[in-house]
User: Fold 3-dehydroquinate synthase from Marinobacter daepoensis.
Amino acid sequence: MHKVLRELKVDLGERSYPIIIGQGLLGSIDLTPWVAGQQVMIVTNDTVGPLYLEKVKRCFPGKVVDVVILPDGEQFKDWQTLNLIFDALLEKRHTRKTTIVALGGGVVGDMAGFAAASYQRGVPFIQVPTTLLSQVDSSVGGKTGVNHPLGKNMVGAFHQPQAVLIDTDTLKTLPPREVSAGLAEVIKYGLIQDEPFLAWLEGAIEKLLGLDADTLGEAIYRSCACKAEVVAQDEKEGGIRAILNLGHTFGHAIETFAGYGNWLHGEAVGTGMMMAADLSVREGLISSDDKARVTALIQRARLPEAAPEAMTDEDFMNLMSVDKKNVDGRLRLVLLKAIGDAFVTEAASSDNIRDTLKAFLPKAE
Amino acid sequence: MHKVLRELKVDLGERSYPIIIGQGLLGSIDLTPWVAGQQVMIVTNDTVGPLYLEKVKRCFPGKVVDVVILPDGEQFKDWQTLNLIFDALLEKRHTRKTTIVALGGGVVGDMAGFAAASYQRGVPFIQVPTTLLSQVDSSVGGKTGVNHPLGKNMVGAFHQPQAVLIDTDTLKTLPPREVSAGLAEVIKYGLIQDEPFLAWLEGAIEKLLGLDADTLGEAIYRSCACKAEVVAQDEKEGGIRAILNLGHTFGHAIETFAGYGNWLHGEAVGTGMMMAADLSVREGLISSDDKARVTALIQRARLPEAAPEAMTDEDFMNLMSVDKKNVDGRLRLVLLKAIGDAFVTEAASSDNIRDTLKAFLPKAE
Assistant:
């Protein structure tokens, strides 16, 4: 049977919910306590579905369980694919009391979550993230949405799940590139507010890449706890929550330039965090040694170190200025005051930003 | 200049907002107090835009005002048209601090409102309804959304506006058929909870059809007050708010069968309310005289009295059972205990429902 390793709570008043981290949960744990009605719609993709769908169906004894299988990939995080979920819900006549279950990575979670936020103006949902990145980041905090050709996650909603179920066994089937991408977000939590966790990661990175279960469980727990704490303070990103976007403004520009799906989100964030550290040095906020420490850990996590081929600083400027992190036209960035201390600023100088962009262009390597 | 006739408040705590009813408001009143940022995106359609767009632009002195013009009609209340709004917002680089303005009828209001709910996970919006139906119903209460081929308003959000601005002058350009459709919702408020208002309407119906300004102002004010009171009690339709759906379950089936845009929403609701009154008699809840009173007023408002050509009771049953008013498969309806006293029930007998459907089929006329 299953083993619950760790459990924590995202504290949002009447919208609070548990995160359950364990081994062997899928197929074994009973999820019906988080299902109010009789209907369940599992949303998954054609990679994850064949691996875990039958197991997850067994988590809902006595319920009517329907399934919709989406094509796998960030390039399908769009209206057309989202509509497949609505089609399935309406064809199977799901009511306002249905529960949607997101089984897969961040793309499935974001789309199933937005479908849950929007179907009949909102139904409950459960997150069952199966990638490291979604387990430590996107499944927690209620951000849902789809991409638009002109920008990532431009259309969406804040919609909190009823529960998040993390089975570390699912990481055994994850490609190494996706493990690295997930580690980018894990490293992020250390960088933004937990230097001791970053130091722990510096000792644990090889074990994590080797998928050591206990080490992964600990890294996931500490990451979720960090995210839960930030989200509880600022559910709708009016302020402090924005620090979770360290590396994301640069990263989103990279993802958009490369075309969705060509760079993994975590890969772009990894490069973006190196860029944020670089700019933090130029702004006189951290030392070159601090930057070297950041760069070294991201490199050890096997993440890319420069922007995609043919990308220019103009591309960056154009793509960053439509990103949602900008308010009233100013470039709003998350920078580091120290390792473990990030903050949001609109004060970075244009010259320094431009120099950082140039330093990370592929021709500069 | 303009004249404010009446003002009321929708009381929803921190999401409270004013409804301002007046003459000559467009082009004259300053709406910038409800605009937090520097950007405004007016969403309108190709019928209303040419009439009022330039006037509404003048309501935002000192702001950057962009415009998106949608094709007019319920048949365009879909994903594809919604995306025109997102395209415009992104092409013009609107940030999370933009304010969306809905200028038009219920379709524009529902779509602009859903765009506001979803753009960058939520931005503020202002309702400027220009049809009687949207002034008394859809612009108040925060329901937003689009249709799906399998059901009306199946995808949407609850998103409250910053303010609702009702200029009765806009009704001068409204086709008579749309005036009647709006009166269906006005009559509804009398039927569900305000018998004195219904009695007043019985004396005022010809003046309303003749667009007498003072009479319209009073009818709009009392309708909005009724809706605001119900919405304040139950923002997300967990209970009492459902009484606002009197006639809507039958009506939605009619609209879906006829094809969106062929019947006006208010027309379908008018017939649907006659059906609800008919079923209420069969269920022993009201007298035949009560039903005759309901029918007479709806007829005097020049609304249709039977389902569309070729529609069968089976069509009704199939289309009603995907409607969102049904929970866990039971047919949930709003019926009348008395004129001015509606309630939600799942207890109506199948035989009586079937008899009511048959009584309103076109061949039965």
Remarks:
- Chain B has two domains: 3-172, 176-364.
- The mean pLDDT of chain B is 93.
- The first strand of chain B starts at residue 3 and ends at 10.
